[in-house]
Design brief:
Helix content is 44%, strand content 14%. The chain has helices at residues 3-11, 14-29, 70-82, 100-113, 124-134, 138-147, 163-170, 176-188, 205-222, 248-261, 272-275, 277-282, 300-303, 314-323, and strands at 32-36, 38-41, 87-90, 118-121, 193-199, 225-232, 267-268, 290-293, 327-331, 337-340. The protein has a four-stranded mixed β-sheet. A three-stranded parallel β-sheet has the order 2-3-4, with helices on one face. The longest helix is centred in the middle third of the chain and has 18 residues, at 205-222. The radius of gyration is 19 Å and the shape is globular. Bound molecules: iron/sulfur cluster.
């Protein structure tokens, strides 16, 4: 498929596109919808970088800085673990005040307190921030992550790869090429990661297609991405103005196109924290096969207007998936099946 073919597909009607995506999804995963028992932990919102779309970092529209001490972060990790979380998803803003050691000491302390928890931590943007700030190579940062107990990497910071859009949205943050290089290096260490794309802001469909093709190319080379997560831009508390929120049709088309173009990435996640649980369930008919997890507590999407701050309990998540006509499958962070419900 060429980029022009993909663009033409995107412009076709929702249900034809959805049917094609659904065929691929069902051939890979039948009626399963994957979820995990996880907790998001965002230890600081103090950020040295500036992204126009961000409602999470501290700025004049969000004047509430916080930075957890290592003890406070470990207490939250313990609480999550005791509540059944099997994965901790740790993403921070780019905090220059805490020092390099804070990041790695945090991971070591969490792993010491909860050795069996899967630690998914550090976006490629954070890796690049630490390398840039402390004059380290990407390899040095990645090796220290592994030494400190990080198991896999989340997919954040990819935003949109197109350089001109990226320059407008988040000038100074990790470049597209570096984002891809960091994931390639991580995969070369035998580790897995996820990939994301922030959509529904100032980009056009051609930029989404370009983004998907760059990811497909790296996946063909490394096979290291477990899941792709199209992240919906949320409109609150940020510095992009006049953006019309993407509607359900556009969101579903983007998810469907992702499933088709990224056939080499095993899972497409409809991230309920951003889409809302109902649209995330509908998206399971349009190519998605994963809905994320219980989350327990969430700070990034909720700062931008999502209703996800308190997460979802396991029973509600399972019931919602069953009621939507799918088979809920609890997975671990690497997509091994742990329990099939119903
Ligand atoms: S998106 Fe990340 S890097 Fe950008 S301002 Fe927000 S916290 Fe900072």
């Amino acid at each position: 498929m060429t980029q022009s073919d993909a663009l033409a597909l995107f412009e076709s009607d929702l249900f034809s596109l959805g049917q094609t995506a659904d065929r691929i999804r069902r051939s890979q995963h039948e009626h399963k919808v994957f979820f995990n028992l996880n907790r998001h932990l965002n230890p600081t919102n103090v950020c040295a970088d500036y992204c126009r779309f961000c409602g999470f970092s501290v700025h004049r529209k969000n004047p509430n800085p916080y930075t957890l001490s290592i003890e406070e972060a470990v207490a939250q990790a313990r609480q999550a673990h005791d509540a059944g979380a099997k994965e901790l998803h740790v993403v921070s803003a780019h905090n220059q005040e805490v020092g390099l050691a804070w990041y790695f000491d945090l991971f070591k302390a969490i792993k010491a307190a909860c050795p069996d928890i899967h630690l998914k931590a550090m976006t490629a943007a954070e890796v690049e921030f630490l390398a840039r700030t402390y004059d380290l190579s990407f390899d040095q940062v990645l090796d220290r992550m592994i030494e400190s107990g990080v198991d896999s990497m989340p997919g954040g910071g990819a935003e949109i790869f197109d350089e001109s859009i990226r320059h407008y949205l988040c000038k100074g943050k990790v470049s597209s090429a570096d984002w891809l290089t960091i994931h390639e290096k991580w995969h070369a260490r035998g580790r897995k990661s996820n990939a994301t794309m922030l959509f529904g802001h100032v980009e056009d469909p051609i930029h989404r297609v370009d983004h998907l093709f760059r990811l497909a190319e790296l996946q063909a080379k490394t096979g290291g991405f477990n899941a792709f997560i199209p992240l919906l831009y949320l409109t609150k508390n940020n510095f992009l103005t006049g953006i019309k929120p993407a509607g359900a049709e556009e969101i579903l088309k983007t998810i469907a196109l992702s499933r088709i173009v990224l056939e080499g990435i095993p899972h497409i996640k409809a991230y309920w924290a951003m889409l809302g649980i109902n649209l995330a369930l509908v998206a399971q008919h349009f190519g998605a096969d994963d809905i994320d997890g219980t989350i327990q507590r969430e700070s990034i999407a909720s700062a931008a207007g999502a209703k996800s701050a308190a997460g979802l309990d396991q029973k509600s998540l399972i019931d919602l998936i069953l009621n939507a006509g799918f088979v809920p499958v609890e997975r671990d962070s690497l997509y091994n099946e742990l329990k099939v419900y119903g």
